[in-house]
UniProtKB/TrEMBL annotation:
<dbReference type="InterPro" id="IPR002347">
    <property type="entry name" value="SDR_fam"/>
</dbReference>
<protein>
    <recommendedName>
        <fullName>Dehydrogenase/reductase SDR family member 4</fullName>
    </recommendedName>
</protein>
<keyword id="KW-0560">Oxidoreductase</keyword>
<dbReference type="InterPro" id="IPR036291">
    <property type="entry name" value="NAD(P)-bd_dom_sf"/>
</dbReference>
<comment type="similarity">
    <text>Belongs to the short-chain dehydrogenases/reductases (SDR) family.</text>
</comment>
<dbReference type="Pfam" id="PF13561">
    <property type="entry name" value="adh_short_C2"/>
</dbReference>
<dbReference type="GO" id="GO:0004090">
    <property type="term" value="F:carbonyl reductase (NADPH) activity"/>
</dbReference>
<dbReference type="InterPro" id="IPR020904">
    <property type="entry name" value="Sc_DH/Rdtase_CS"/>
</dbReference>
Amino acid sequence: TSVLGRFTGKTAIVTASTDGIGFAIAQRLGQDGAHVVISSRKEANVNKTVDMLKEQKLSASGVVCHVGKGSDRAKLLEQVKSVHGRADILVCNAAVNPYFGPMLGTPENAVDKIFEVNVKSTFMLIKESVPLLQAGTNPSILVVSSIAAYHSMDFLGMYSVSKTALVALTKTLAPELGPMNIRINCLSPGIIKTKFSSALWKDPALHKQFLKQVPLGRVGLPEDCGNVAAHMCSDDAAYMTGESVVVSGGMPS
């Protein structure tokens, strides 16, 4: 638990934040003093997560939001605006991977879904959040990409391409957001122990194969990402924008 208080008085929006990396980021921002707005597609998960954070004496509220739906994004931002009047931190973590197999076998509907959620929705939410962020203090955006952006993984071809696009999105938006005093950076996790990546670490043979590529010799934990994310969103990283930080236990990127 951190008692840094570096986000005291700040409001942070974290998408797909009811478990895994999104939850770890939201929890750490809350531990550092932020009011965290939890969002996810399922109301039961949102409520459960908000209750869990409140039990930890953290400040949290929640909004149901499917980032692929413009009306849901509008509702999320409207709620933040009406309660807080601004946003200081936006973490874009929502992503899908409906297909696991050779890239040339990817069905068209899977391609559409991957780009719709992972790339288009991320861009649209950033674009729509700008007025709220401009009202914030030293505002910061964090886009969650993946080591797959740099080092395409077997059976995750189109997902890897979408994550490469997020690195490019971050680099392309940085010069446009900079004059507005909004920073934007990218976090690229390696193999982290989450439900989302369970195909990679639950199978003992695959797990062993992946660990050969990890100099630190272990699968990462969501907190490994939460801690770095909090630093990148804080004023400690005030002179950093347009960058991507890889958190992978040393896996080559």
